[in-house]
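Hello,

Our lab assistant flagged a job as stuck in the queue for most of the afternoon. It eventually completed. Since we weren't sure the result was trustworthy after the delay, we are filing this so someone can double-check. Below is the sequence as submitted and the structure that was eventually returned. Let us know if re-running is recommended.
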Amino acid sequence: MSRKPKPVAAADLTAAGLRALSKAQLADAFGPILRDLKPLEKRAELFKAEFESRGVTLLVGETFSVQRSETSFDGVDVVAARAALGVEWCEAHKKPVKRVTWKPVALKDADRAAGDAA
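-- returned structure --
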């Protein structure tokens, strides 16, 4: 028999409400959000491209306005740094960058028990 996850109420979407969820409930609430986010991000990219093609920085509608802003920063040319300072110096002074991603996976009923035990 298939277990249908109980939706998390909007009122429960607080830090305290999320902490009260079991691991299975947390996965069942978070998974659909991540799954649905990807198509929305793709749609947003289409709108961003249209915004750019029109060369505008502000669009104002009846219910929303959208403003484009840009931030730039100076990066280090790694090839030039290695050539000037040496590979060993660069290795000794590198700073790790951490990127965290979340991937939703729909589970079969048999897999749910193993995930809940973790």
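-- support follow-up --
The delay was a queue issue, not a problem with the job. The result is valid. The radius of gyration is 23 Å. The longest strand covers residues 58-60.
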